[in-house]
Amino acid sequence: MLAVAMHRNPRTNTPLATVLEELQSAAALPFDQAHPIPPSVNHSLEFLDYEREAVFQQEWICVGREDEIPASGDFLTHQIAEVPVLIVRQPDAEIKAFVNACAHRFACLVPDDKGSGKRFTCRYHAWTYDISGQLVRAPYMEMKDGFDVTRHRLRPLRLATWEGFIYVTLAENPSTQLDESLAPLREQVVGRYDMACYQTVLRESMEWNANWKNLIENFTESYHVPIAHGKTFAQHNKPPQDYVCGEDSAHYCYHRAPQAAETGLGAAHPQNDRLEDEWRRMMIDFCVFPNHLVTLMPDYLWYISVQPLGVDKMYATWSLAVPPEVLADVSEADFDDWLAQFKHYMEVANGEDKALVEALHRGSAAPLLPAGVYHPIERNLWQFMRYLAGMCKS
Question: Is 357 in contact with 218 (CB distance < 8 Å)?
Answer without folding.
Answer: yes
